[in-house]
Amino acid sequence: MDQYQDKILDHNYDGIQEFDNPMPGWWKAIFVLTVIWAAVYLIGIELNIIPRYGDDLKAGQDELLAMRQAHEKSQPKIVVDDAMLLAALGDADKLAQGKEVFLTNCASCHGNVAQGGIGPNLTDDFWLYGQKPIEIHKTISKGTANGMPPWESVLPPEEVVSLVVFVSSTRGTNPAGAKEPQGEKYDPPSKDSSETEKPDEKAPTPAEESKG
Ligand code: HEC
Fold it and tell me: What dihedral angle (degrees, nearest 10) is formed by the CA atoms of 187, 189, 193, 197?
């Protein structure tokens, strides 16, 4: 800084005075660089060498889409119908999984052993929305207007199937503190008069002995 003479400008604002020194070299260098960068940027943008906001957005969206598609492909597709559910009823693994999922998601409203609470007792022969596995599956998946939440977007499909297995297994367990019956009575072993009943309907299994 010795090459500069500290030259004081000859104005004086209430004792505040001003030097007349040149800008520091580093400051001028940064300024020149910003001017050069402005030119580079302008040309880069105009020639599409530098990606624009829209390009970045599209790249991000494409990446997301690819991830979603890969995830969907990795999910096993399961077809839920009467036969599939009836076959699942005897599956011990599904029963165990169903019990676990039930305790986590359903017990708060239906009780630990499905005896009922805010939601209906699921162990009796009375059903608001039908007692067939496919009907129970629909109730759980889609929910109902009176407070049963839909679960198809919350739980993976195979867990909903396991829930049907568990709920079907609790029939006739007569738990303590069971909620009073709600809905229509279905008599699994005998013939039901309702026209929706199919002759090949399988009677749910171990209900009888525990009933007493
Ligand atoms: C927020 C409380 C709540 C939760 C959590 C809940 N339910 Fe329900 N559930 C209800 C209510 C209330 C009803 C009765 C709905 C109606 O009358 O429309 C019901 C009805 C049902 C029915 C039909 C019963 C019948 O009589 O037809 C089934 C089956 C059922 N729930 C299973 C489940 C399963 C399985 C889960 C866990 C994934 C679950 N619920 C979680 C409140 C709940």
Answer: 100
